[in-house]
Amino acid sequence: MKLILASKSASRRAMLDAAGVTYDSIPADIDERAVEAGLAGASPADVAEALAVAKAAAVAALHPGALVLGSDSLVVCGARRFDKPASRDEAAEHLRFFSGKVMELHSAAALLRDGGCEWSHTALARLHVRELSEDFIEHYLACEWPAIGHTVGAFRIEGPGVQLFEAIEGDQFTVLGMPLLPLLGALREQGVLLA
User: Is the pLDDT of residue 1 over 80?
Assistant: First the structure.
C-alpha cells in the first residue's frame, strides 16, 4: 500500500527512513493558524491532533486511495503556547521564557485515506529546561539559527539543542516530533508494514 508523508520535516523523514518505512513525501499546504482558530479552548493534545489530521486530509484529497500520514508538534510552557520562532530575537525570547521551566511537547500523528481518519495518536514529552545564561543563549543561537527557525521549541534534540535540558520524560521519537512506535503499530495494521 502506498504511504504518503504530508510533511517536509527532516526529522520525521529521518525517523521513517531509519525504521525502514517506504513512503513518498508531499508537504501539506494548510493554514495552521486558521485550523487553530477553530479550536479555541481545546487542549494542546487536541490541537496537535487536529493539525495532524488537517495536514493528512489536505494531501489525501489530492491522492485518492493513498494512506496519508500527517503529524504535528506543539509546545506549552507556563500555560503559554509557543509556535515556531519567526526571528532570532523571538527565539531568544522563547529560550529566556523556557529557562528553568518544564516544557511540554505534544506530538501527534494521524493516518487518513479518502477523507476518513483510519488512526490517530498523541504523545507527551516533558522537557526540563536548565537555567540558561544570556551568554549560552547568544552562543547557542549563533550556532543554531536559522536552522531552528522551523522547530517548535527552538531546538533540535539531535543537535546542540540537547544542551538546553537537564532531564526529559518521554521517548525520543515524541521529542523528535512524531509518536513513532504507536505509528509503526498502526502501519502494520494497515498492511503497510509486515506484522
Answer: no
pTM listed for this prediction: 0.94
Average the pLDDT over 162-175 and give the result. 97
Tell me the sheet residues that pair with 122: 108
Direct distance between the N- and C-terminal alpha carbons of the chain, in angstroms, rounded to an integer? 14
**What does 68-116 look like in DSSP terms, one character per residue?**
EEEEEEEEEETTEEE---SSHHHHHHHHHHHTTSEEEEEEEEEEEETTE
Grid cell for residue 10:
527532516
Residue 111, domain member (yes or no): yes
Residue 175: what pLDDT?
Answer: 96
In a domain, 195, yes or no: no
Q: Give the bridge partners for 107, in sequence order.
A: 73, 123
Quick check: is 72 catalytic? yes
Which residues have a Cβ under 8 Å from the Cβ of 176 and sit 6 or more positions away?
11, 12, 14, 15, 157, 158
Catalytic residue (choose from 72, 83, 89, 114): 72
How many distinct structural domains can be found in the chain?
1
CATH of the domain at 62: 3.90.950.10
Give a yes or no: residue 194 inside a domain. Answer: no
| Domain carrying residue 31 | 3-189
Q: How far from 147 is each of 30, 83, 107, 125, CA to CA, in Å? A: 22, 15, 20, 22
